[in-house]
Amino acid sequence: MTGETVHNLRGDYSRMRPDYTVEQEWDGYSDAEHDLWRRLFARQVALAPKYACDEFVEILPELHFGDGIPRFDEVNAKLKPATNWQLVAVPGLLPDITFFDHLANRRFPVTVWLRDPKEFDYIVEPDIFHDFYGHVPLLFQPVFADYLQAYGRGGLKAHALGAIEMLARLYWYTVEFGLIETPKGLRSYGAGTLSSGGELPYCVDSPNPNRIGFDLLRIMRTRYKIDTFQETYFVIRDFSELFEATAPDFTPYYELLQGRPPHEASTVLPTDRVL
Ligand code: PHE
Ligand code: FE
């Protein structure tokens, strides 16, 4: 997730390197922070078997996220041989270009700070719990991992073409809030839902939101909600569908879409595959 400006953000941007990375300074986390992490973890992990995709559920025990705030270096030692991704520590949201450049080089930026206890249920800016618990497990899935790198490369290209907004919608409706069809039913693979106590059951069970089959151009034309649960989720059949549908050159897609007004988050079209 990106933030075009880093002003007024919560993290400490005063000691970062030019690529916005910092040291995690793991020894600086308090006992209270480790305890809060363990409580956040306990709630989410209890929901995972019913609502998270198998790829997420199966890798979690190997990551020991339940012990307390994880160390970047320990996870990196496992991630490198698995998919050749690495985590980098950052103060918080990054400028778009910086974010895309990290992804394009298989570096996933993870925020170093943890929310306050009063933000147990909801947090505005992504913290280490969202970034680590929500995003890192799927970095072990080879096809998804390749998709994320391709997304980073595509972001650098979209920037040059003035198409960041359309590409950001794709990130939102896949990496953050994506659903996947499985033999057991719909499951989440999106970090925004996987890390949320309220929205994880909601995205699978609630009769309220629309669930629509993945459709690249439709997604890039669809607005999203940042301060409520989503009104629409898009559903992939498997990670290969996601990778293959996004492999073509987007330049003609951007040209086609640039002249058209966006759809609202709640819109259902006659052409949608509604699940
Ligand atoms: N194929 C896209 C392009 O050429 C890049 C991309 C890949 C974007 C994967 C998002 C996800 O612009
Ligand atoms: Fe995120």
From TrEMBL:
**Cross-referenced CDD domains, in alphabetical order?**
pro_PheOH
> Which Enzyme Commission number(s) are on file for it?
1.14.16.1
Q: List residues binding Fe cation.
A: 130, 135, 176
Any single GO molecular-function term of the entry would be: iron ion binding
Q: What InterPro entries does the record tag this protein with? A: ArAA_hydroxylase, ArAA_hydroxylase_Fe/CU_BS, ArAA_hydroxylase_sf, Aro-AA_hydroxylase_C_sf, Aromatic-AA_hydroxylase_C, Phe-4-hydroxylase_mono
One of the Pfam families matching this protein, by short name: Biopterin_H
Q: Which domain of life is it from?
A: Bacteria
Task: Report which reactions are catalysed by this protein.
Answer: (6R)-L-erythro-5,6,7,8-tetrahydrobiopterin + L-phenylalanine + O2 = (4aS,6R)-4a-hydroxy-L-erythro-5,6,7,8-tetrahydrobiopterin + L-tyrosine
Q: Which residues are in the Biopterin-dependent aromatic amino acid hydroxylase family profile domain?
A: 1-275
Kindly state a single biological-process term from the GO annotations of this entry: L-phenylalanine catabolic process
The biological pathway it contributes to is: Amino-acid degradation; L-phenylalanine degradation; acetoacetate and fumarate from L-phenylalanine: step 1/6
Report keywords, A-Z: Iron, Metal-binding, Monooxygenase, Oxidoreductase, Phenylalanine catabolism
Cofactor(s), by name: Fe(2+)
PANTHER family, sorted: AROMATIC AMINO ACID HYDROXYLASE, PHENYLALANINE-4-HYDROXYLASE
The UniProt entry's sequence similarity note says: Belongs to the biopterin-dependent aromatic amino acid hydroxylase family.
Q: What is this protein called?
A: Phenylalanine-4-hydroxylase
The organism encoding this protein is Usitatibacter palustris
Q: Which gene encodes it?
A: phhA
